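Cross-check.
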Amino acid sequence: MAEETHLSLKEQVALLPFLPGVYQFADKTGTIIYVGKAKSLRKRVSSYFVNSHEHTAKVRVLVRQIVEIRHIVVDSETDALLLENSLIKTLQPRYNILLKDDKTYPWIVVRRENFPRVQSTRILQRDGSRYFGPYSSIMMQRSILEFVREVVPLRTCKLNLSPSAIARGRYGVCLQYHLGNCKGPCVGHQSEEEYDQLVEMVVSILKGDLRPVRQYLEHEMEEAAKELRFEVAQRYKQRIDALDNYAGKSVIVSARIVDTDVFSLLHDDADEVVWCNFVRIRHGSIIGVSTIRLTPGVEASDADILTQAIQHIVEKIGGGELAKEVIVPLLPSATMLFDGVVFNVPKRGEKLELLEFSQRNARIHRAEQLKNMEIKNPERHTDRLMAAMQKELHLKHPPRHIECFDNSNLQGTNPVAACVVFRDGKPSRKEYRHFNIKTVVGANDYASMREIVSRRYTRLLAEGSPLPDLVIVDGGKGQLSSAISVFKELRIFDRVPLVGLAERLEEIYFPYDPEPYYLSRTGEPLKVVCHIRDEAHRFGITFHRAKRSRNFIRSELEEIEGIGTKTIDTLMRHFRTVGKIKTANLEELTPLVGQSKARKIKEFFEKKV
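Predicted model, tokenized:
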């Protein structure tokens, strides 16, 4: 059965994606009162609920009536503009500027007639003509028409060029013929077959297949250049550039797909639920998108689930109406329940694009619902993340306690190391540990890794503290081998999973496997591993820099004859910095270290000036 969730406005805004699309505001009765477009849905919608003093009175009234926020994600701002236009005309929301004249976006039509004309139109007629678009602006459409007419010589006149009229010699050539923009089919100078070939070249441009006209333009440009007609060649070059900037059709509005319903399914194996997205298309435009959550029965097939989903949506959302053509990812199990309906499983073209559009919106809706559940129940997110990491890293148990080691040195000087601890995928900073390398001389990362891992787990074992669920060593196979030898000596190799992290973040090395394992670049486990590594680097480098700084300060003071460690500690505790010690006078230094040492310090720094 389908399930519904009721969220606060704040929660609904937090779940919106940072993607282009259309948002709809509904009041307490479920009526859509406003439709808008956005480059980023969350940023745009959230602006209604902040800085309210900057809004007009009408906007403040609108905001007070909002109870539900609905949205549809699209590919681009252009698609958002087209979909907004379609929904406003269909829904007539109270707070929108209503399109009283039913103005539509412009199309380009190839007329069904003898010697077809290519023209601009805003009216789609089912007369057998071919329509292309729509275009988000009349300027774009005009530039394409001008480009087509400049490249391909077709007629623009309104003459009836029937074979009988041409045979009677009723017409004469016009100025366009003399300018080279038309080849004179009206007087029989061009055959219908030759003209149709040029029309098909225009159609290929409008469909987005630019290869035929590109080959034609490149050939003409080369010929003009060979004949030293450089201005002509430059014009062809500009036309080729215009081709590269040409925009194709939109799946949001179509001249060929008139009245259709689209259904798609998305499984969520973790929760054993299925999401079904529904897209309604009327008169070539998308007028509604919604997603429901289904809990399938025992041994229910996808065909059974789809049948159940269609029945529910038609009854609850679709007003009992189903289009005569329905696009689906697979055939329902009981098509006889939908009398007079043709189910289409597309393999290519615009219908497949619509099915993919539906599937994408189902994925986005699922992600939003999961995020909402995790907001209300943080443990759910933690459990899901730990399960994902366990699966991705091939672990026996969820890695709720992770430790990561990293070495840091500068050309072998001041070698240090860091251990960072993560619990449930989050840093536990109070458990971070620094290590000064004691037994290794020079830059030897393998020996340094061996030392710090041995010190860390020898101590944990001695204290009886719990061992981590996963240990990560930064540095790849060499450092991993050093850690493996320590784990074996301490007899914890079979108790604690151990992996090495290579320079490329998505590469993980497992013990005794020479080939790296690649983490999914889009999965959450990689994000957690990256966070752990970044924390280990940051923590180690911060400690290393502090140690280098302290050593530099102490070494400068240790150059003063007769000044020892205790004197340096006394001075640093009082003055904090060497700069203040340098500028201190004898009266300030003498009470701390005595007159003799105070004089030596002053003389030392005065000689350095």
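The CA atoms of residues 256 and 284 lie 7 Å apart. Confidence is low (pLDDT under 50) at residues 1-5, 99-103. Passed to J.P. for a second look.
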